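BUG: 3D viewer hangs when loading the predicted structure for this chain

Environment: internal workstation, default settings.
Expected: structure renders.
Actual: progress bar stalls at 90%.

Input used:
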Amino acid sequence: MPEIASLFLASELLIGRGLAVLAAWALLNLVVSGYFVARTDRRHEPYYFHGMNVSWGLVNAGLACWGVLHLHFTAPAGLQLGELIQNQLLNENLFVFNTGLDAAYVMTGFYLWALAQVPGQARPARLRGFGRSLWLQGGFLLVFDAVMWGLLHGQGQSWLGLLA
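Structure tokens produced before the viewer hung:
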């Protein structure tokens, strides 16, 4: 029977790698959109698109840092299999919940885009820029969270044999 501590550390490693991907995405948004937002006219859609991407980059960087700070590099003393599985299910559920939020972000992007098409709408460029950013950010996060859930779920499924 595999040692519970090694299973715990494998789970932490998987989450840590996911956080590294999220941090890289955040950095990419901060650098690329930070560059373009400073060089774009405020009256046009790209300004709002890149401005929103910078905001998402800050939030994602904060979440990645928070997650890394909460990683464990050693298993807690006396860790039991039930606690390990409970922690695994908590992480899986977190990513499933986030996947739902991500779908809502994408749908909100479609709503903003449609709202921008209404004749006489104030600041349609802002609505379109924000909508495009929500498509991009929500789409990336949807794939990211779904993949993380799938990886964690597969990992957790491989542990079910230990319960017998």
